[in-house]
Write a structure and sequence with these properties.
It is a single chain. The chain has about 350 residues and is of the alpha/beta class. The chain has a domain of about 230 residues: Metal-dependent hydrolases (TIM Barrel, Alpha-Beta Barrel), CATH 3.20.20. It is built from 13 helices and 18 strands. It has an eight-stranded antiparallel beta sheet with strand order 3-12-13-14-16-15-18-17. It has a five-stranded parallel beta sheet with strand order 7-8-9-10-11. The protein has a three-stranded parallel beta sheet with strand order 4-5-6, with helices on one face. The longest helix has 13 residues. It is globular and about 60 Å long.
């Protein structure tokens, strides 16, 4: 018997986790949380992200118009749930940090001490104050010559160093890779997004270069996946041990995260059965919930994603579902998977 103590419903309980695989909480190093109810948009491959953005962004007509009518806090919460349901306990949100939404009740921990810019295409001089924090920026998200030059341009602005992680990096060539190595910069890899948008992802040379590489999902706009799906895609390119590092140790180092010893998950047969964040149970499978007095989980609500087993989560799922369905109808999909409640 393998008993583990957890906090649930304001009380302490013990769970028998015999046969479960216990892992540190997973880290998703790049997501745009408010865009995960959206369908994947565009018909690639495109030469670069700017061309894709111009093609898909039409806020005056469906589907973008309808999705933008869903209140942003609701969309952020669904992005948090996408991550929680795949065993993520910490996510790096590549958009403004919203302290009114990212409270202790939000489904996952959102990295706060991080500086970011969208990209050189959207911000020719990405000069956000860094304050010594890790700095993330979309860079080299393309396959054409202009996007191959982006890394050198970022370096010329003084924005490429050991605290920088570029997101995507598909256009990195030999010179760009050498520059990354000299500056000791990291990379956040989103293979599904790259393949959907650009028709290819980073090269084997980049994967084997020794630069720090974290794995991430991006949003459903370009990638209908959660982190479990993305790990399966990454496994086509690198070993299982390397994938594990890309969602635990490497992103923790890139994002300069403090110790998270009270963040952990339990899995059985590739299904997430338990997610504990800061010692508090946020997700529990129906089977494990039978070990808990019903009174302790009365606030938990059921949710199932298409193709995944049902779970209970510490979140107002019914209210969130209603708030989104009001604008989108009842065929709601979270990162490509139908939501069943």
């Amino acid at each position: 018997m393998r008993l583990e103590r957890v906090h649930i419903g304001g009380h302490t309980a013990h769970l028998d986790l015999t046969g479960q695989l216990l892992l540190p909480g997973l880290i998703n190093a790049h997501d745009h949380l408010e865009f995960n109810l959206f369908p994947t948009l565009g018909r690639g491959p495109y030469p670069n992200a700017s061309t894709w953005a111009r093609d898909i962004y039409h806020p005056d007509r469906p589907p973008v118009r309808d999705h933008l009518r869903v209140p942003k806090p609701v969309r952020l919460w669904w992005g948090g749930l996408k991550n929680l349901l795949s065993g993520v306990t910490t996510v790096c949100h590549h958009n403004p940090y919203d302290p009114a939404v990212f409270t202790a009740d939000f489904p996952v921990r959102v990295v706060r001490r991080v500086a970011w810019a969208h990209s050189l295409g959207f911000e020719p001089r990405p000069t956000r104050r860094r304050n010594g924090h890790p700095y993330l920026v979309h860079c080299a998200e393309g396959t054409d010559a202009a996007y191959r030059r982006e890394l050198a341009a970022l370096d010329k602005l003084g924005a490429l160093d050991s605290r920088t992680a570029i997101v995507h990096g598909v256009a990195l060539d030999r010179a760009g890779l050498a520059l990354m190595q000299r500056r000791r910069a990291g990379l956040v890899w989103c293979p599904t997004s790259n393949l959907k948008m650009l028709g290819r992802t980073i090269s084997r040379a980049v994967l084997n270069s020794g630069i720090p590489i974290a794995l991430a999902t991006d949003s459903a706009l370009s990638a209908p996946v959660d982190l479990l799906d993305e790990m399966a895609v990454a496994r086509r390119y690198v070993s299982a041990a390397r994938v594990y590092e890309m969602v635990t140790e490497v992103p923790a180092r890139i994002l300069q995260l403090p110790e998270r010893e009270h963040d952990w998950i339990a899995m059985r047969e590739s299904a997430v059965e338990l997610v504990v964040i800061a010692g508090r149970v946020r997700l529990i499978s129906a089977a494990l919930a039978r070990q808990i007095p019903r009174a302790l989980i009365r606030k938990f609500q059921p949710v199932t994603l298409e193709g995944r087993p049902p779970v209970l989560v510490d979140a107002p799922v019914r209210r969130l579902y209603g708030a989104a369905a009001k604008h989108l109808g009842r065929d709601l999909r979270l990162a490509g998977k139908r939501i069943l409640v």
